[in-house]
């Protein structure tokens, strides 16, 4: 008897949640690998119907490239997410929990989730909702901004550090795919210390540049030295209470390196305040504060910075 032709199995998808600057940047970097990888990528978007959308990308050396991306609308979530092997969550820290909860009911039970955002906190908030799914975390200092909704410009090369947090390790195939295509990316067996180190940079630079309406380079001035030192010192104390030993002097040195390397840039929080958008303060200095409260440690410098940013947000004219 002739055998029935087998139904083609569609390759497992890599789904990106969040088509902001970082989501689109990662899409372009992965899509560059080869056609087969590009065809596995899609964006989940509750704002649009399913469609193939041209995405423009301006590279660091000024080349402009257009790639076509599949955007999956709400009606088609179930099918795409059931076939998703890796979910890359690239939304702002304060959006992670709600965004993830909106897709979890449809997401394959063995999907791997990777959170990539500024700040810390969502990794603790989402843990109870994951069921059997594994979670990795990452941080990137690649610079990118959206020229318009579907056009991203890369503005700075930077490190991307990724690593496992809960559950099974990411498969070797997916790990290789990420590491060989995301510029200067590395995998770490213990990602938390690196997230705290990046947090120290954001704790020092982000609120001060927003409050004083200045580019990162201004913070090299002596008048900011004390606040930077005290805010990072509080972070070191809180991390120690959380069981992680960090070197204050090394962190301060790193903060000043980043100030110098990104001297002309406006930090993401400066841009958020400038455009009257919600900032990530709760996941940056606010996270230090929350952990400090848990351990009954006082963190007055971080508290002051949080209050100042909240005051700026309260003045938005909408
Ligand atoms: O959030 C940012 O803007 C960036 O993480 C950094 C490193 C502070 C540079 O501006």
TrEMBL record:
<dbReference type="Pfam" id="PF08546">
    <property type="entry name" value="ApbA_C"/>
</dbReference>
<comment type="similarity">
    <text>Belongs to the ketopantoate reductase family.</text>
</comment>
<dbReference type="Pfam" id="PF02558">
    <property type="entry name" value="ApbA"/>
</dbReference>
<dbReference type="InterPro" id="IPR013328">
    <property type="entry name" value="6PGD_dom2"/>
</dbReference>
<protein>
    <recommendedName>
        <fullName>2-dehydropantoate 2-reductase</fullName>
        <ecNumber>1.1.1.169</ecNumber>
    </recommendedName>
</protein>
<dbReference type="InterPro" id="IPR003710">
    <property type="entry name" value="ApbA"/>
</dbReference>
<keyword id="KW-0560">Oxidoreductase</keyword>
<keyword id="KW-0521">NADP</keyword>
<comment type="function">
    <text>Catalyzes the NADPH-dependent reduction of ketopantoate into pantoic acid.</text>
</comment>
<feature type="domain" description="Ketopantoate reductase N-terminal">
    <location>
        <begin position="14"/>
        <end position="165"/>
    </location>
</feature>
<dbReference type="InterPro" id="IPR008927">
    <property type="entry name" value="6-PGluconate_DH-like_C_sf"/>
</dbReference>
<feature type="domain" description="Ketopantoate reductase C-terminal">
    <location>
        <begin position="190"/>
        <end position="313"/>
    </location>
</feature>
<dbReference type="InterPro" id="IPR050838">
    <property type="entry name" value="Ketopantoate_reductase"/>
</dbReference>
<dbReference type="InterPro" id="IPR013332">
    <property type="entry name" value="KPR_N"/>
</dbReference>
<dbReference type="InterPro" id="IPR036291">
    <property type="entry name" value="NAD(P)-bd_dom_sf"/>
</dbReference>
<keyword id="KW-0566">Pantothenate biosynthesis</keyword>
<dbReference type="InterPro" id="IPR013752">
    <property type="entry name" value="KPA_reductase"/>
</dbReference>
<comment type="pathway">
    <text>Cofactor biosynthesis; (R)-pantothenate biosynthesis; (R)-pantoate from 3-methyl-2-oxobutanoate: step 2/2.</text>
</comment>
């Amino acid at each position: 008897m002739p055998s029935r032709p087998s139904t083609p199995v569609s390759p497992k998808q890599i789904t990106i949640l969040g088509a902001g600057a970082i989501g689109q940047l990662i899409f372009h970097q992965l899509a560059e690998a080869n056609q087969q990888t590009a065809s596995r990528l899609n964006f989940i978007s509750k704002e649009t119907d399913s469609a193939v959308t041209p995405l423009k990308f301006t590279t660091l050396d000024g080349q402009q490239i257009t790639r076509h991306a599949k955007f999956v609308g709400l009606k088609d979530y179930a099918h795409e997410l059931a076939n998703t092997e890796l979910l890359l969550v690239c939304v702002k820290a304060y959006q992670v929990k709600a965004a993830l909860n909106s897709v979890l009911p449809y997401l394959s039970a063995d999907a791997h989730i990777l959170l990539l955002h500024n700040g810390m906190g969502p990794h603790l908030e989402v843990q109870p909702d994951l069921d059997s799914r594994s979670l990795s975390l990452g941080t990137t200092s690649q610079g990118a901004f959206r020229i318009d909704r579907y056009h991203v410009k890369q503005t700075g090369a930077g490190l991307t550090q990724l690593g496992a947090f809960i559950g099974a390790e990411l498969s070797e195939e997916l790990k290789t795919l990420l590491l060989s295509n995301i510029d200067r990316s590395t995998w770490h067996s213990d990602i938390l210390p690196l997230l705290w180190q990046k947090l120290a940079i954001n704790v020092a630079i982000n609120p001060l540049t927003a409050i004083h309406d200045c580019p990162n380079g201004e913070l090299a001035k002596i008048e900011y030295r004390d606040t930077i030192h005290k805010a990072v010192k509080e972070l070191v104390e809180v991390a120690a209470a959380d069981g992680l030993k960090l070197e204050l002097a090394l962190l301060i040195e790193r903060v000043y390196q980043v100030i110098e390397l990104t001297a002309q840039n406006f930090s993401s929080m400066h841009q958020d305040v400038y455009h009257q958008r919600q900032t990530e303060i709760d996941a940056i200095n606010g996270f230090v504060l929350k952990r400090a409260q848990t351990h009954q440690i006082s963190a007055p410098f971080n508290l002051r910075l949080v209050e100042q940013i909240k005051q700026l947000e309260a003045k938005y004219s909408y």
